[in-house]
Design goal:
Blueprint lengths: L1 H13 L21 E3 L4 E3 L1 E2 L3 E8 L22 E3 L26 E7 L8 E7 L15 H7 L2 E5 L4 H5 L11 H16 L5 E11 L1 H10 L10 E5 L23 E2 H14 L7 H9 L3 H4 L2 H6 L4 E2 L8 H6 L8 E6 L4 H7 L8 H12 L3 H7 L8 H28 L5 E6 L41 H20 L22 E5 L7 E4 H4 L2 H6 L3
Parallel strand pairs: 2-5, 7-8, 7-9, 9-10, 10-13, 11-12, 13-14, 14-15
Antiparallel strand pairs: 1-2, 3-4, 4-6, 6-8, 15-16
Helix pairs in contact: 2-15, 12-13, 12-14
Length: about 550
């Protein structure tokens, strides 16, 4: 059950796969009237959409294929003439869905997309937002997200990025030595491209905000603690993911293992050696083994087992010398303004995906899940989360997981940052819309509303994400406010805007130190809330993990 569930999570948090666009560089008449920009590698022609212009499929690194598979990204080759940027590039190889036939995606996938508002103000450089998609490090693509509202309403340049996934992005082997997590190295290569080219698109290379959701937010946590990311971004927004995020045993289904987002390099090497054995690459020399592995077809590697076995970035290398949670706790992070946020009902998405296979109908079902996850502490957890306080046992279980795995760990990450950098601009939010549109593809479970589940804030920032229904007028007003908050933060390092409720600052000395900004539609929906108390974080802080 674990592989199908992880696949569903990857697909849902990455959004539905759109129809493939033309390969970048192919002739396309629609792009002939678009804007031409000279990048550091050559000319690109985008497409004007009136209030904004898009440039798709721009290479930021060479294709990581053949001898470049499982190597750090190297610069893309320059080109002559004008490169067509009318279409996005193919996505990186995805974790296959159960029963899928052909591989989805390509190893030739290190491309990014740029959205620029028009007209360009004379002499004015816009802030730049760089989006790292989610998808459990197994699925997703930058092209899934249409950021024109952020660009136009927020007057910002927005960049969305592809990066290697699964076994192609996070494989390790003793023969590779202390090679970095390739997917994270890809992201840093993209940030270096942004630094070199932002001004060419009207952006300010000294005002780059890195933002992402789920695995994208976990990636940003890694970059906050990575010495090789110094100077590559000036602000960060982490949506539903932090350096301290983790899942207990059984969170994705009875008996499924506990989850930590990062892995020791030695563990990844051990898994890689076993994978090489299973693939028949058993030559005595490390170079021969790697040559054999690099000779394997994409189809042979893009299996559910191999993809899911390598979806945790390794630490103990140049990109991540130490585990990001330990780096954060010791003060080893870049001093940049940060927004940390979660959704009020995060884990309802994960629980809702699994209820068909693992229903939680009775008090006994709920109690069994608590014992599986928390062992001797199960009674204490149940005392704080009695079924009687929730409409159903399944919703009680989702509340337990939301508080333990995401909300309280995110607040703890904020406290760690504030402890070492008390003057740093640091803000938190909780997306709290109880009637947010449900992401397409989630199963309907009677008596189990999704509420403000994992990923449900994204349609309020991006217009392209498929949902069961469009935003209402009041939700559209909230969307406008969120776009304003995100882009104002990108411009100034402070999300506060004129004539809007002020965000509390997460500082140990502040009387609102435990408060975050609630983001919900309607009167009173945007105001500070004590998330620490609401999610029983004092209990979880005392409970050993």
């Amino acid at each position: 059950m674990l592989f199908p569930l992880l696949c569903a999570v990857a697909l849902l948090t990455a959004t539905a796969v759109p129809a493939s666009g033309a390969r970048p560089g192919a002739p396309n008449a629609a792009g002939q009237s678009g804007t031409v920009v000279r990048t550091d590698h050559g000319l690109v022609r985008g497409v004007s959409h009136g209030s904004y212009t898009t440039f798709g499929g721009i290479p930021y690194a060479a294709p990581p294929t053949g001898a470049l598979r499982w190597r750090a990204p190297v610069p893309a080759a320059p080109w002559h003439g004008v490169r067509d940027a009318a279409k996005t590039a193919e996505r990186c190889v995805q974790m296959p869905a159960p029963g899928a036939g052909a591989v989805v995606g390509s190893e030739d996938c290190l491309y990014l997309n740029v959205t620029v508002p028009a007209p360009k103000p004379a002499g004015k450089k816009r802030p730049v937002l760089v989006w790292m998609h989610g998808g459990a490090f197994l699925g997703g693509s930058g092209s899934d997200y249409s950021p024109e509202r952020l660009a136009v309403r927020g007057d910002a340049v927005v960049v969305t990025v592809n990066y290697r996934l699964g076994v192609f992005g996070y494989f390790g082997h003793p023969g590779l030595g202390s090679a970095p997590p390739f997917g994270l190295a890809d992201q840093q290569a993209a940030l270096r491209w942004v630094k070199a080219n932002a001004a060419r698109f009207g952006g300010d290379p000294g005002s780059v905000t890195l933002f992402g959701e789920s695995a994208g937010a976990v990636s940003i946590c890694a970059h906050l603690t990575s010495p090789t990311a110094v100077g590559l971004f000036q602000r960060a927004v982490l949506q539903s993911g932090s350096c301290l995020m983790s899942f207990p045993r059984g969170a994705l289904g009875p008996g499924t293992p506990a989850y930590e987002p990062f892995a020791p390099q030695a563990d990844v090497h051990t898994a890689g050696a076993e994978a090489a054995r299973q693939l028949g690459c058993t030559a005595p020399g490390g170079d021969e083994v790697l040559a054999c592995l690099r000779g394997q077809s994409t189809d042979r590697l893009a299996t559910a087992q191999l993809m899911q076995s390598f979806n945790r970035p390794a630490y103990g290398n140049a990109v991540l010398p130490v585990a990001p949670d330990r780096a954060l706790a010791s003060g080893g992070f870049h001093r940049v303004p940060v927004i940390l946020g979660t959704n009020r009902d995060e884990m309802r998405m994960f629980v809702g995906l699994s209820l068909g296979a693992f229903p939680i109908r009775t008090d006994s079902d709920y109690r069994a899940r608590l014992v599986d996850a928390f062992g001797p502490a199960a009674q204490a957890v149940e005392a704080h989360y009695p079924v009687a306080d929730h409409p159903t046992p399944a919703l009680a279980w989702a509340a337990v997981l939301t508080d333990r795995s995401l909300t309280c760990t995110t607040l703890a990450a904020g406290r760690a940052i504030a402890a070492h950098a008390p003057g740093l601009p640091l803000y938190g939010y909780e997306f709290s819309d109880p009637d947010a549109p449900v992401l397409a593809g989630l199963p309907a479970n009677p008596g189990f509303p999704y509420g403000a589940a994992h990923g449900f804030e994204m349609p309020f920032l991006f217009s392209s994400l498929p949902t069961e229904r469009p935003l209402t007028d009041t939700q559209r007003a909230l969307s406008d406010r969120m776009v304003d908050y995100w882009t104002t933060f990108a411009r100034t390092g402070n999300p506060n805007t004129a004539n809007a409720p002020l965000w509390p600052v997460l500082r140990p000395s502040s009387p609102l130190a435990r408060s975050v900004q609630s983001l919900a539609p309607g009167p009173g929906g945007i105001e500070p809330v004590d998330a620490y108390a609401a999610h029983r974080c004092s209990f979880w802080d005392r409970l050993p993990r």
